[in-house]
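Weekly sync notes, structure subgroup
Attendees: PM, AL, DS (notes)

Item 1: joint prediction request from the bench team. They want all two components modeled as one assembly rather than separately. Inputs as received:
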Amino acid sequence: MTPPGPVGDRFRRFRERLAAEGDDRPQVSDDRPSATSGAAAMSGAEATSGGDHPTDRGTAASSRRGDLTARRSTEAGGRQGRRRRRRGGGGEELRVPEAEFTSYYGRPILKAPVWKWDIAAYLFTGGLAAGSSLLAAGGQLTGRPALRRAGRVTALAAVSASAVFLVKDLGRPTRFHHMLRVAKPTSPMSMGTWILTAYGPAAGVAAIAEAAGVLPRHGLLGLAGRALPPIGHAAGLLAAGTAPALATYTGVLLADTAVPSWHEAYPELPVIFAGSALASGAGVGLLAAPPAQAGPARRMAVAGAALELYGAHRVETRLGLLSEPYRLGRPGRLLRAGRLLTAGGVAGALLGRRSRVVGALSGTALLAASVLTRFGIFYGGVASARDPRYTVVPQRERVEARRTGMDLPSDRAVPPAV
Amino acid sequence: MLPDPNSLYGPLDPAPDAGYENAPPRMGFFTDTSVCIGCKACEVACKEWNGVPESGLDLLGMSYDNTGALTANSWRHVAFIEQPRPAGHRTPPFAGTPTDGSASAASAAAAAGTSERTGTDPGVPTGTPSAAARMAGGGPADVLGAIAADPTAAGRGGAGPQFLGMPGAQPPGRGTGVEERTDFRWLMMSDVCKHCTHAACLDVCPTGSLFRTEFGTVVVQEDICNGCGYCISACPYGVIDQRKDDGRAWKCTLCYDRLGAGMTPACAQACPTESIQYGPLDELRERAAARVATLHDRGVPEARLYGHDPNDGVGGDGAFFLLLDEPEVYGLPPDPVVTTRDLPKMWKRAGLAALAMAAATVAAFVGGSS
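Output from the run, pasted for the record:
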């Protein structure tokens, strides 16, 4: 049957309300008010009652309250008192009212991605490899051996881990080489395979060349020791040349799906992933290099964090209903924690430029932030595919807009003439 | 040969675009749900012919639907929707003999929580109870409130909160007051892979396992598929699915083996009411338009076609439908768009991001000496 609720109006009002509240960031949680209490739930009174939820969801919510409250105490600051009054100390927060939509027994319309956590982990290791290779190439060209060595070794380790994650996630791991049958520009996974095929060996050779320093000076091994540095030089440049593609194609990989919150975020995902890769590469530099050599890593950290924070902010605010999965539940917590760690890492890198310890801590924070951001984006998309709301409501709005020839429908109560 | 400008989006004849010369006419399904009786002969015939594994024997409580969704082990899925509405605007068939709301909202809400071990991933995941309750025409708040607050409350109508996973045992209209009674109608629909003109699953497949046949259909080659799962995320209809035991993705082939021999696909062959019609797509589209006109004349104004339009988001479906309600009621997306429509823009954004990354690195290393 036709969903009778004026969804477009509701969301417009909701956005206006958000804008009016200024910096009072939308607060969110997993369990939502039901459709009929959706508008009223803005006042917060019904949201905690749990009376209109099935029991299991209610208990799940209360079992989560502990950590939500703990997190709140760290971030809420001056507004905390007001919220506690509004919410009665629970974890309930301001959120988008549930749009009325219809779905077959409430079941998902899309099939959620079958990719497991290892794909999210690959998003990180792939970016880490790319960032490290860029760092290594910079160190190589500007005479900073500590950055070069750390970057090359990390890149090899990260790209090896990537290969393991990718093959392990296949339904038929022994058929991984079937990826090499075709090269398809319409398949980001195929393109990524070829990018990895070009990048991986180059990064490997560059890392192996670092062994030149420990080889004996004479004999056959000595000959190898003399030949390795120039080979490593060339391989390092090749790896750095393909690294930006490796770091950003994963944005297209996620966006080129029917998963609503991934697809609609296609302008931002490559930006986030590029920034995250730069920041994690910079993290390696800060961890490994003495402060005297770590200047470029600090600047990379700033640039990476800027891209990452800008992109993440955009996906969390620009997409309307489809931003919601990035703010709710586990993805929301991951992304918020990632943002805090990114900010902390950059601040530490800039302020503690004399201290090796502060530098190392900042580097660790940046690496952890990159992991959290990747997992947050990954699971945000998965959540959007699991809930039919994110499939039906935006598409229904599109249909209604076409039908009425308007930007947004003003009255959806009238059933459409067929 | 230059690729068609519409090869990612827009009206297109897919077989010539895929490189076939002198391709036969594009074949497809027209599923007319107005004559579907929900016998599931199509599901059975499909399993028999294609050797599809069994998909569990659980009762889902979704009316008479115990298949739940299209999965790797169910390539046809008959949906059952019970609504408290008269069938069309003609004289209600039960005029003067009021009936129950056959599936109460509470029953639908409970059915949303059932699942089935289909042996596939993601298979048939559970749904949102409030959305399911809305589907049965009841207000979600009172329904779910009743479940949460008082699980022993007496059921109104057939299936009450004491959920047994099956439709009510009482004859319609008995055991309820007159004011509780409603009209009702039953919607049944045999769902299948849509064989899109612009098939996202095929576009994103990194192994070339999915391919376009000369009949314009989309088929998975089981000896190539390595189970990467990309097609599953890409399908805007949620059709293709992965078998857990063998790791590969499976879906309807539109009986490619039978088509090559000039035979009708098994489901269409088995359909006793010609709800599933097979033939050249052009002919089916004409037949479907005539059928909609007939139904409108006979007082079924809600009849509409779904997936027939070559100008829609996927360039038109090879398997399209005549529906009696909005698509999402049947679990179909209201306005699917092939994800690769935006792919050129995505690559552009990725290229810009890559350039920004390289530029940032250069700037970081030449920007100072510290």
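Discussion: Confidence is low (pLDDT under 50) at residues 138-166 of chain B.
Action: AL to compare against the crosslinking data before next sync.
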